[in-house]
Fold 4-hydroxythreonine-4-phosphate dehydrogenase.
Amino acid sequence: MAIPFSRPLALSQGDPAGIGPDITLMAWLRRRELGLPPFFLIGDPDVLALRARQLNLAVSIRETDEASKAASIFADALPVMTIPVGIEVVAGEPHAATAKGTIASIEKAVSLVIDGEALAVVTNPIAKAVLYEAGFRFPGHTEFLADLAARAIGRPVTPVMMLSGPKLRAIPVTIHIPVRDVPQALTGELITETCRIAHEDLRQRFGIEAPRLAVAGLNPHAGEGGAIGTEDEDVIRPAIEGLRDEGIDAIGPLPADTMFHDEARARYDVAICMYHDQALIPAKALGFDDSVNVTLGLPFVRTSPDHGTAFGIAGKGLAREHSLVAALKLAAQLGRSAESRR
Ligand SMILES: NC(=O)C1=CN([C@@H]2O[C@H](COP(=O)(O)OP(=O)(O)OC[C@H]3O[C@@H](n4cnc5c(N)ncnc54)[C@H](O)[C@@H]3O)[C@@H](O)[C@H]2O)C=CC1
Ligand SMILES: NCC(=O)COP(=O)(O)O
């Protein structure tokens, strides 16, 4: 099989006790059938080998310390750039001692992409609580990647989380914060900046010439004219008006309960939502297996499956690799399109 990609994708290991190893092995096994772009895992080959045995999967694993060799290895073996986990990992039993390796794997993936050795970053799921226990100070990948990017390019980066699936693209303006903090965090500036980044990345990266943004309200019925909460009229509407003045096709604030049915979704390219669950519930309900989490606003491409570590099914042969496969394909597509614009 000829694989028409030169630079491989850098795939971080995620939590080694979760389903990251399972879905990585399964995706690699389906590489020919699905025409997958070459990728290499940054993680512990012993964890992978043990999981392959547990799952009865015939996968040869080959260590490499050079991304440039991964593309040629990929046809015959799963390339692994080694970062040892440091303890014996039991599938389904997370341990804070693995956090250091999990974080190092993400950092390595980013540095390889920034150095031009890998095409894009794809991340396997991490368990936030496990990393917090070990002192990790970022809410999730999204914020960590923005920090790594900012340090690399020397200016602040606003990351925008987008769940992208065949039926819906949805962006939460506020991301990993408690619901009680949402109204205060939701400023006109944040809404405006998020929409500008969404508009620009949908144009540049996704090739949508004039993206249509549908902006959700925060309160029931988008505040019912101010009777059920004031943020919709006081904060969200002025931000939308400002965006429209800039020439961005944004509508709203729309009542969130009626903007996700089939007919409503046909009217926009992306739903701009006010908080995490307002975006991620419809995204996962409409496409759990084929939606991808993509971070906009970064100076490199990063995608991820839409799901988490699923500890309850790790090592049991129940995990589906579909969302990771979609994440690998989208990363290659976006990475290639970024290359062609250079
Ligand atoms: N990108 C990331 O790193 C993400 C990480 N997480 C983390 O994952 C951990 C667990 O989160 P949960 O809310 O339980 O969500 P989860 O996505 O891990 O699991 C939710 C349900 O979906 C099932 N499931 C998930 N992925 C599946 C797959 N590929 N195939 C078959 N079934 C699958 C699980 O078995 C479970 O029943 C949390 O610590 C969270 O922080 C959650 C979402 C994304
Ligand atoms: N619920 C989505 C999620 O937690 C993924 O976040 P991130 O780790 O990609 O920032």
In short: The pocket of LD2JLWAY (ligand 2) is lined by residues 140-142, 280, 293, 304 (CB under 6 Å).
